[in-house]
Design goal:
heterodimer, A: mainly beta, B: 428 residues, six-stranded antiparallel sheet, four-stranded mixed sheet, globular
């Protein structure tokens, strides 16, 4: 017995390095969600802007505090750097959002950095990215399964 | 030698070792470290538990029996080392608290309250949520729905000790029953949430520090909720932070200020969005949540409720506008009591969980006079134990008054909301 206990110390190097593929969390079930990838983008519903999630911390988005780097471009692909960009988290299956309702961003080097926002429970979260700029207002919805 | 030994133990752990959390620490150091600071590890050391059990046994001439200790140190009861929790200093420390074995060796749930957990001591399999556990030879390993936080059945195992019915038949603690009535207990896409989904956060990691174990989605074993240790206990600061993080988003507020026929109306709404049960829950008879509302016209305060000094019980503050959440206990004659064994009934003012057929919103309006405020602030607080109950334990000689200084008052930071501006007519 003693040999067994001693032997187990420091065995980290024998672990496999990559996480096993996990099944979809039951808390999300078959609800359609987006697959995370850095730089993923969507057009706004008004067709004015293209919204991209350049980076996320953590990546993919997870339960707890999240911080994103966003980019907004116009229909021609030119960066939109002078818009007011906000993020609105919402759980459609639970019918609630967060307090405060929206997450502000700060423009930085042509991108937008969100304040940390708390996806505080597992399940499907919709994150609406909204931009108000010289071309007008537009928004796109990203949906993620937060496994928790 | 050492790698080979990690793959397969030379001999399986014997029963005494399986019962001892320190044995588990050798190969599950992360889980053991998290558990060591948890309320499960603390359950039989909590001075409030010890005081309440001592007084309860005395005042009922022992009729409480193992009601308390059967959930605060279930293995100590099963091993025959205590029948009432009054001799814990004589009990093997390995059996105190809600130990690894207490949960991972469960084979069935025979009752949904007062610890109806069942074990098979003749063929011990330690179960978790992993479908294909690596077998090391240290113990038999298995998977079961009771131990899989993605399974609704797992809530039944937690619920068996988190619902308590007193000998008088009072449904004292109802967390599992409350959860069972919410949408989260429905096996429906996007709705299902178990106890483990909220109180055992997932993370990619290793279930055991053993050769060949792959990285998987594992879960936290510190179980943050609302209570923290009063004694010098491991991981205290981490637990405080985890509880605060858990509490902050629980309730979303709504605030409206307007002028009605009877004067200025301040309406506060609260929505329980993140507790998959009532709020507060568990020992709701001891817990107190309350709303603080303050209104000003310029620098002049024109209305205030819910201003509760530290060290003073919420219900001991003269406050006719008070809005609180929790349970109140009453004896057979309708007198308010603090100790659960005296109770014949309860009145609950919990904020309900999200339910299919009823709302999880509550609201209250105060008429605050004719002077319109230009600023209103709302805050939400929670104490896991309030001072009226604790003072009663001090007065009876069962609780050292020094512990009163350790009672936290949590502010649910996302429950705060502010309004400022000009008051408009209601309904405008």
């Amino acid at each position: 017995m003693f040999a067994f206990f001693i032997a187990c110390a420091g065995a980290d190097s024998a672990h496999s390095e990559e996480p096993e593929t996990t099944t979809t969390a039951a808390i999300c079930g078959d609800v359609a969600v987006d697959s995370w990838s850095a730089g993923m983008s969507k057009p706004g519903s008004a067709g004015l802007y293209q919204f991209a999630i350049v980076a996320a911390d953590p990546a993919p988005p997870d339960k707890g505090n999240n911080s994103w780097t966003l980019a907004v471009t116009d229909a021609g692909g030119a960066p939109v750097t002078d818009a007011t960009v906000i993020v609105t988290p919402f759980m459609p299956e639970h019918n609630h959002g967060t307090n405060p309702e929206t997450v502000a961003t700060t423009a930085s080097d042509g991108q937008y950095l969100t304040e940390p926002f708390n996806l505080f429970m597992g399940g499907v979260w919709e994150l609406t990215l909204s931009a108000a700029g010289s071309l007008g207002s537009d928004a796109a919805v990203f949906s993620f399964c937060i496994e928790g | 030698m050492w790698l080979l030994a990690c793959v397969e133990a030379e001999e399986p752990l014997d029963r005494a070792a399986l019962l001892d959390p320190e044995s588990c620490a050798e190969c599950h150091p992360t889980q053991h470290e998290q558990w060591s600071g948890s309320m499960h590890a603390y359950a039989a050391q909590d001075p409030i538990f010890l005081a309440m059990n001592a007084r309860g046994q005395r005042e009922t001439d022992g009729a409480l029996g193992d009601l308390c200790i059967n959930c605060h140190a279930p293995m100590a009861v099963r091993e025959g080392q205590t029948t009432d929790g009054l001799n814990l200093d004589e009990v093997d420390p390995a059996l105190l608290g809600v130990t690894c074995y207490s949960c991972h060796a469960v084979v069935d749930v025979a009752a949904d309250h007062n610890n109806g957990l069942e074990y098979d001591d003749a063929a011990v399999v330690l179960r978790g949520g992993i479908e294909d556990p690596v077998h090391t030879g240290a113990h038999e390993s298995g998977q079961g729905a009771l131990h899989d936080r993605q399974s609704l059945e797992s809530a039944a195992m937690c619920g068996s000790c988190h619902d308590v019915v007193t000998p008088a038949g009072v449904n004292l603690e109802r967390t599992y029953a409350e959860w069972s009535a919410t949408q989260y207990a429905v096996a429906e896409d996007g709705l299902q949430q178990t106890c483990g989904n909220c109180h055992m956060d997932g993370a990619d990691g290793y279930a055991a520090d053993v050769d060949g174990v792959p990285m998987r989605r594992i879960h936290d074993h510190s179980f943050p909720a609302v209570d923290i240790a009063f004694t010098d206990f491991p991981n205290h600061e981490e637990m405080v932070a985890a509880v605060q993080e858990r509490l902050d988003p629980t309730v979303l507020p709504f605030l409206d200020v307007c002028t009605g026929a009877s004067g200025v109306e301040i309406t506060v709404g609260l929505e329980n969005v993140a507790a998959g049960h009532g709020f507060p829950s568990g020992a709701a008879q001891d817990r107190r949540a309350w709303v603080q509302v303050q209104a000003w016209a310029g620098d002049t305060p024109i209305f205030s409720t819910g201003e509760v000094p530290e060290g003073v019980a919420v219900h001991d503050v003269e406050d006719p506008d008070r809005w609180t959440f929790g349970d109140l206990l009453y004896d057979a004659d309708g007198n308010k009591v603090h100790m659960f064994w005296e109770a014949a009934s309860y009145v609950s003012s919990q904020l309900p969980g999200l339910a299919p057929d009823s709302g999880n919103h509550v609201a209250r309006t105060w008429i605050v006079g004719e002077t319109p405020p230009d600023r209103v602030e709302v805050r939400l607080f929670l104490r896991p134990f309030d001072f009226d109950m604790l003072q009663s334990l001090v007065d009876s000689g069962d609780l050292d008054p020094a512990w009163l200084a350790e009672v936290p008052t949590w502010e649910l930071r996302n429950g705060a909301i502010r309004w400022s501006g000009l008051v408009e007519p209601c309904g405008g």
